Amino acid sequence: MPENEKMKILWNENHRGYQPPVQKGYVEAYTAGAGVLKDDGVVKDDPTNLWPSADVLPGWKESIQKYEHETLNVGRRVAKLIARALGLDDDFFDLPQMFGDDNTTVCSLFHYTDQENGSSEEKLGRMGHCDVGLITLLATDDALGLQICRDKEAKPQSWEYVLPKKRAFTVFVGDMLERLSGDTFRSVLHKVVYFQERYCIGVFLLPSYDCIIESLLAPNSEENSSKYSPEKFRDFLDFRYADVTAETIQKQMKVA
Description:
This is 2-oxoglutarate (2OG) and Fe(II)-dependent oxygenase superfamily protein. The chain is an alpha+beta fold and 256 residues long. The chain contains 5 helices and 14 strands.
């Protein structure tokens, strides 16, 4: 897509749209919300989405929406297993405020761009981080790049590559599930270190903005962690994305 068209859908305050690389040879991304899939198969679009013109990318919107909802359904099946492991009803995560019609799930496409001057040296494409939601379902091409740290509290941290696997998802536990489960499930610290062009697409299962993120375990159980205060998901999300705005991205581009 031409650069001028990408700039028309620059990342907005709702964390939707295009994120350009901070400088040449780094990662660029595009994010869209899932909207709601109605009984007639038509998607009621997320009004905060920023879509490229159909004249520029015909079929893009429909393809992303279809992929997002099919992957979301896979995520809901995984969530049933998580609920069972936590001693909850299997359909707990199907509640409207979780991953029913009020969910704020997003799909992000990442392009780790070519190295400058044909360099084959490893490059840090994304710094170490944990995803914000319940789980992430990641599909990648066959280029090596994803690394995980099995013990995020370790000093020094030890990193290892995750081998890409075709026709399969890599599933990450996110910070939301860590809190809900009282640390029974731990969010996965990961980063991308790459040395060749790489593509991947992630669907991030996110609840309603008004969902209260707090431990689901019995308050007095040994497994329950009291270090997390109840918090609305909107506040939780805004804190995580406080420094990622269209203005900060534009400033980074000018500096680069």
